[in-house]
Predict the 3D structure of the following.
Amino acid sequence: MDRIDIFLEKQRQEGKYRILQPLVYRKSGRICVKGKEFYDFSSNDYLGLAEHPSLKEAAKKAIDEFGTSSSASRLLSGDFEFHHRLEAKVANFQNKESALIFNSGYQANIGIISALCGRDDVIFADKLSHASIIDGILLSGAKFFRFKHNDINHLEDFLKKERKKYKTALIITESVFSMTGDKARITEIVNLKEKYDCKIMIDEAHAVGIFGENGAGLIEETRLSDKVDLIMGTFGKALGSFGAYLACSNEIKDYLVNTCRSFIYSTALPPAVIMANLISLELVKNEPWRRKTLLENAYTFRNNLIKKNLQVNGSSQIISLVVGDSFKAVKFSRLLQENGYWVLPIRPPTVPEGQSLLRFSLSYNHSKDLLNKLADDISKSIPKLN
Ligand SMILES: *Cc1c(COP(=O)(O)O)cnc(C)c1O
């Protein structure tokens, strides 16, 4: 027990101790915690689809027809026609030959990366990459270099020095960064990928549903789907449901079906989830006003904060306010809570030491008036921080 005690005490002292906080409900841009209601700036349900009547209807109908479980892994007898219907739809949505569904984004990343890379290979990943990407890399046993966040020159330095020493090379980045909300320079990264003969994997967890003409993500917006070998996305954020996908070539899909352990050794997603996912892809295409309004509001909010001389990041529906110190970030979040906003502090190890921040996750459910009031209240909280 000694080791555990010491660890927990250290977390407390450094302002990094984490606790679970159960919600009573989450509804229309608000959440209820311990009987009190707050404006919710912590949800990834960016478009409000998790409450969409069509999604709920599809899930209920699926349960009535097929029950509550897929009852086996895909390679045994958990593979239904609707899984294939969803994969065909994702492939079409992402403009790739093929797609494979995963039980979550975490499982997708650890499984895909560790199946495709091994000891003889090299991986280059952005320093702010999500934990699931890092874990996939560690599991693969590949040699691993992390380039400074969004620093193309640093990436190229690594490529120049290291690429030739290895058989295959994979570059990995998120397209919209989950915590800071800024966008990767994907056009430039894709150019480097071509120049140095690498494969590239892009995690669109926070971009799918938000960017692109049809809401397929930043790769659609930059028209790079042909050049991106592995497009990963999730259903649990803007798509309002659960699960994840990889859009790729037929060959890579076949290889993963035969080798990817997080795909092979896990029960297939249940019918209700797959049916909801099918509908959510339709909704994203057919209700573009949701993402348009959301992005307009996000840009206004961001500019408001900048006008108030605050240091913000984020050129998406995620806006982050740089705080630095962990304790200060926690205090800031408490002050906003007292004003009725649920905004979470993001601390190490999620972000590097000394770069704690407040993450504002905006949604279609937040009105312009609410965002203006929030910007004012943020500004008023600053003097109370010290
Ligand atoms: C949320 C997230 C994941 C994990 O997806 P889940 O479906 O929640 O497991 C992977 N990558 C990024 C960048 C994410 O933000």
Notes: The radius of gyration is 21 Å.
